[in-house]
Amino acid sequence: MSIFPTTILLATDGSEEAQLAATTAADLAQKTNSELHLITVGPDLPLYKLPEHPAGFEDVLRKNRHEAKEMLEQQAERIEESGVSVKETHLREGRADEEIVEVAEQIGAGLIVMGSRGQGRLSRALMGSVSDAVVRHAHCPVTIVRK
Length: 147
Known about the structure:
- This protein is an alpha/beta fold.
- It has one domain: HUPs (Rossmann fold, 3-Layer(aba) Sandwich), CATH 3.40.50.
- A five-stranded parallel β-sheet has the order 3-2-1-4-5, sandwiched between helices.
- Helix 2 links the parallel strand 2 and strand 3.
């Protein structure tokens, strides 16, 4: 039995903080000989941004999915270019915290790595924080990477 995780889940959204988390996750995966999985959760479309015509709604959803998939693929390529293998990528839609925790459980992650934008108390109280929610609900340790 090892004290190191055998599976690491990197949650990424393409932000600068997520890039730092990607470097950390790749380094940990390489040093502990762990599988590395990546997840991104496509953005929900806020109700106030719904287009007036249903066809427009489908176009917006399709564009959002494409952008999220492209960002996830680019992140996986950058990691693999650094010499670390990515076992699998996961593109999900819904609430980011719930989807991250669900995928972590499905793959048996021993560690979740994610970035944090370091919101102040007021922003966190009003909008919530994905990293805070993942820490509260994950079944495994969570490493939060900040600038």
